[in-house]
């Protein structure tokens, strides 16, 4: 962000005026004490003369990999800023909900390593070691002569 400010001849006060924000908030962004919220990124991007998508990535509200997720438009550049912000807020809400649920759910029961009936339904046993291995054994009765 500093590079864009310098190139434009802006200081933090000018950016805050152009982006309709506070100088203190812009100062926190420049000192890496805070990141712009999803709602102010479009106006900040416009003030800096950069695409909103690039500003979202720079502010870490979006990663390049996120551009391929199903609930964003196939070409996010075609979204208006309000739609992009709305979709990102929804994605962040869902991510937070999923993370909270994952923290609350108990770990799956552990199955001790050992021989178990083959999950494919074959008349063999297969060795489980946290995952099904390629090791199998016959379940036919042993004959002693």
Which series of helices and strands comes N to C?
HHHHHHEEE
Rg is 27 Å
Low-confidence stretches: 69-74
**The biggest beta sheet, please?**
3 strands, antiparallel
Going by helix content, strand content and strand pairing, the class is alpha+beta
CATH topology of the largest domain: 434 Repressor (Amino-terminal Domain)
Oligomer: single chain
Average pLDDT confidence is 74
Strand content: 5-15%
Notes on the protein architecture:
It holds the Pfam family DUF2510. With 145 residues, the chain is α+β, with helices and mostly antiparallel strands. The protein has 2 domains: 2-104, 434 Repressor (Amino-terminal Domain); 111-138, no CATH class. Helix content is 42%, strand content 11%. The protein contains 6 helices and 3 strands; from the N terminus they run ααααααβββ. The protein has helices at 2-8, 12-18, 23-30, 41-48, 52-58, 81-104, and strands spanning 114-117, 124-128, 132-138. Helix 2 (12-18) packs across helix 3 (23-30). Mean pLDDT is 74; it is low at 69-74.
Give the secondary structure arrangement, pairings included.
Layout (H helix, E strand, L loop, with lengths): L1 H7 L3 H7 L4 H8 L10 H8 L3 H7 L22 H24 L9 E4 L6 E5 L3 E7 L7
Antiparallel strand pairs: 1-2, 2-3
Helix pairs in contact: 2-3, 4-5
What's a concise summary of this model?
42% of the residues lie in helices and 11% in strands. By secondary structure, the protein is an alpha+beta fold.
Name the features.
alpha+beta; 42% helix; 145 residues; 434 Repressor (Amino-terminal Domain); 6 helices
